[in-house]
Design brief:
The chain is about 30% helix and about 35% strand. It is built from 3 helices and 10 strands; from the N terminus they run ααββββββββββα. Helix 2 packs across helix 3.
């Protein structure tokens, strides 16, 4: 009997040590600083000042494909431009967005804008690393969807939103000329 009690006590001590170790690791993990990538909300003025172009148009094509090295998926969005609010350019613009799906393999990149064929959009643009291809300034913040005469993300009628963008661009251009 004495021998059994000893073994039982030894198992208990080993179990207690393991439990204490797990508890200590849990406490350390909870005390470790959390790492978050937070995006600060950009104002229209900030988006406009960092953009080389601002367009309104209709999405006519959305195609995902692998990059040249076959390591990353990008989605290429073609927008037929109705109006340039800042800058000038072609009647159709190609925009590259990280992520997409090719042959059942998907890549989701947080904070990137989503596009649907046929939607009307206002987009703040900047050059991408690819020649003749643009990217959205401010990720999802630089893409606005027009539905039923309203800009969904801004909660404004289209006309009011366009006037606001045009006045911001005009003020920024005036300020740049004064320098």
């Amino acid at each position: 009997m004495g021998r059994r009690a000893f073994r039982s006590g030894r198992v208990f001590r080993a179990g207690a040590v393991a439990a204490a170790f797990v508890l200590a690791l849990s406490v350390v993990a909870l005390m470790a600083p959390q790492s978050y990538a937070l995006m600060q909300k950009a104002t229209l003025a900030q988006l406009a000042s960092g953009s080389t172009g601002i367009i309104q148009g209709k999405v006519t094509d959305v195609v995902s494909r692998w990059d040249a090295g076959g390591k990353t998926i990008f989605t290429y969005v073609t927008v037929t431009v109705d109006q340039w609010f800042k800058g000038t350019g072609p009647k159709a613009v190609t925009i590259r967005v990280p992520g997409g799906e090719v042959d059942g393999v998907g890549l989701m990149v947080e904070d990137t804008p989503a596009f649907a064929k046929g939607e009307t959009v206002i987009i703040f643009l900047e050059p991408s690393q690819e020649q003749s291809v643009m990217k959205v300034k401010g990720l999802f913040q630089g893409k606005f969807t027009v539905e039923n005469g309203k800009v969904r993300e801004a909660g404004l009628p289209l006309g009011d939103f366009v006037q606001r963008v045009k006045s911001i661009v005009k003020a920024q251009e005036k300020k740049a000329q004064e320098k």
